[in-house]
Amino acid sequence: MTIYQNLIAGEWVGSDATKNINPSDTNEVVGLYADGTAEDTRNAIAAAKAAFPAWSRSGIWERHVILKKAGDEIMARKDELGALLAREEGKTLPEAIGETIRASQIFEFFAGEALRLAGEVIPSVRPNIGVEITRDPLGVIGIITPWNFPIAIPAWKIAPALCYGNTIVFKPAELVPGCSWAIVDILHRAGLPKGVLNLVMGKGSVVGQAMLDSPDVTGITFTGSTGTGRRVASASIEHNRKFQLEMGGKNPMVVLDDADLAVAVEAAANSGFFSTGQRCTASSRLIVTEGIHDKFVAALTEKLKTLVVDNAMKAGTHIGPVVDEKQLKTDTDYIEIGRKEGAKLAFGGELITRETPGFYLQPTLFTEATNQMRISREEIFGPVVSLIRVRDYEEALATANDTPFGLSAGIATTSLKHATHFKRNSEAGMVMVNLPTAGVDFHVPFGGRKGSSYGPREQGKYAAEFYTSVKTAYTLA
């Protein structure tokens, strides 16, 4: 079987390899992917540093053309790349193709942004002096991505980094190297100069740590667990390095008495259980007022009965497998914790056997939960949702905000008054009204508050805040 190698200084570099296993069929090896070393990482950093002076001064048309080519090829290969994503991560094929299309759109957007680079020219308060305000590339960017969106998240970090003239050392999650390798291969063939984009696949404790230890990495953008994010922050402060963190979430979906029941159920089911609940924006806390509580629980339970859990590649599957055995154990451990805490297991919670061996788990709904239970406070990152009964809107809002996280929040209501108040008073970075909490457009800012995020927002024009440094220049006329 072919070993998919790391890309360092424009060359494909061989090394030991690890198996990429399909969570829908653990008998299938998706591919063999390089297992990079600390030395590989240091070589990649050196290559990115050497390539930075020329790339940072490259023409905007060159950047535009390369990013546009990448976006076009991803779109042309959406079915192929979507199938690869579904096989290596376990997301259903329609979701995987949708994510691939989003990656293409992200490259298209930043291809356009490359042509819209701008600054300001303003007068000084002193006579005969002009002031120019511009944005310079940051330098060598370390990119560390998670396994749950293996093509979209790399895209929304790599595309702006290149658009604004930075060079890159990229470490994808160990579980899902395939889509990342494909993106890097596409960009490499699109004409990126040697050393501008370097791929080092491997263990976080090896590759990631080497990136954190290097004083030549001038910025790190990280998406992953809260614990690892704190280590990225600590190491970056030591090097006076700019860093951007996207971490955990325990997102609330509020359902008020006046909600359209069908809309509320659809939003809750999508938010909590689609993508196997493996989204940082998933709403794993449903906060429901008393008047609609019983009807909502009954309707949501009926909805869950219709959802098909099966092989991600199989037509008609709504929910694919959990990504791997370790995450499956985390999910089942939390199900046991919920039982012991006194929450009522209203639906699911059982392992499932399917035609192919995989990590299949029923969508799991706990009712009679409280906001103090561990299942309501800690991120599980699986199809496990706790439902909390509250008296009224005021208690619902307070409960929604009572969390150490603040990424996304939703509300189901037909009241303009409550929708408006919730948008203004939710302590989350993103708020949805009568929509799932997961699902953000590619051209708008993505990010949260409190323990969910740190640093400038990702995506859209706001990406410039992280990937550039502002320069103010004065000229005597």
From TrEMBL:
<keyword id="KW-0558">Oxidation</keyword>
<dbReference type="InterPro" id="IPR016160">
    <property type="entry name" value="Ald_DH_CS_CYS"/>
</dbReference>
<feature type="active site">
    <location>
        <position position="246"/>
    </location>
</feature>
<dbReference type="InterPro" id="IPR016163">
    <property type="entry name" value="Ald_DH_C"/>
</dbReference>
<dbReference type="InterPro" id="IPR016162">
    <property type="entry name" value="Ald_DH_N"/>
</dbReference>
<keyword id="KW-0560">Oxidoreductase</keyword>
<dbReference type="InterPro" id="IPR016161">
    <property type="entry name" value="Ald_DH/histidinol_DH"/>
</dbReference>
<keyword id="KW-0479">Metal-binding</keyword>
<keyword id="KW-0521">NADP</keyword>
<dbReference type="Pfam" id="PF00171">
    <property type="entry name" value="Aldedh"/>
</dbReference>
<dbReference type="InterPro" id="IPR015590">
    <property type="entry name" value="Aldehyde_DH_dom"/>
</dbReference>
<dbReference type="GO" id="GO:0016620">
    <property type="term" value="F:oxidoreductase activity, acting on the aldehyde or oxo group of donors, NAD or NADP as acceptor"/>
</dbReference>
<comment type="similarity">
    <text>Belongs to the aldehyde dehydrogenase family.</text>
</comment>
<dbReference type="InterPro" id="IPR029510">
    <property type="entry name" value="Ald_DH_CS_GLU"/>
</dbReference>
<keyword id="KW-0630">Potassium</keyword>
<feature type="domain" description="Aldehyde dehydrogenase">
    <location>
        <begin position="13"/>
        <end position="472"/>
    </location>
</feature>
<protein>
    <submittedName>
        <fullName>Aldehyde dehydrogenase family protein</fullName>
    </submittedName>
</protein>
<dbReference type="GO" id="GO:0046872">
    <property type="term" value="F:metal ion binding"/>
</dbReference>
